[in-house]
Amino acid sequence: MTTTIGRTVLLCHDLDASAAFWADGFGFGTLFRGETDGFPLLHVGPGRVDEPGLWLVPLPDGGAPLVRHGLPNLVLYVDDLDATLARLAAAGVEPFVGPDSDAESGDRFAHVHDPDGHRIVVVQLGPAADPA
Predict the structure, then answer these.
(1) Are 74 and 65 in contact (CB under 8 A)?
(2) For residue 98, which of 19, 72, 110, 124 is within the disulfide window of CB 3.0 to 4.6 Å?
(3) 1-60 has which CATH code?
């Protein structure tokens, strides 16, 4: 039996600002924009609609994103942390943690916020994660 994650939902104040963040910072494309059961929905991701992605959904009026008490909302693995951070910087996003590295694994990482304050950890896995 194979199980994969399809989508993660992020609540947003401004769908267009969120879409720009994901497109400019991570190269995510818009896979679907419309309504589902009467609710606006923007599906973005790095690949196809049947691959893992994000559903960006507007917050209810006056709503606030869920606070994670310092824990990340999302962890993303990238091939090149420096290139990703450069893309984010060009979009006006700077890390609030890192970039840093783990001496044991060789993983490199940084923490950024999206326009709604979701905490995102961006990780370039080190050689210890390579199964070869």
Answers:
(1) no
(2) 110
(3) 3.10.180.10
Question: Which pLDDT score is estimated for 132?
Answer: 56
pLDDT, position 71? 80
Contact between 76 and 125 (Cβ < 8 Å): no
pLDDT tens, residue by residue, 12-49: 988 999 999 999 999 999 999 999 888 899 999 998 87
Q: Give the N- to C-terminal CA distance of the chain in Å, as an integer.
A: 24
Give tens-digit pLDDT for 86-127.
999 999 999 999 999 998 889 999 999 999 889 999 999 998
Which CATH number is 71-132's, of 3.40.50.300, 3.10.180.10, 3.40.50.920, 1.10.490.10? 3.10.180.10
How far is the CA of 107 from the CAs of 2, 72, 84, 123, in angstroms?
27, 17, 15, 7
Coil/strand/helix, residue 83: helix
The DSSP code sequence of 84-125 is: HHHHHHHTT---SEEEEE-TTT--EEEEEE-TT--EEEEEE-
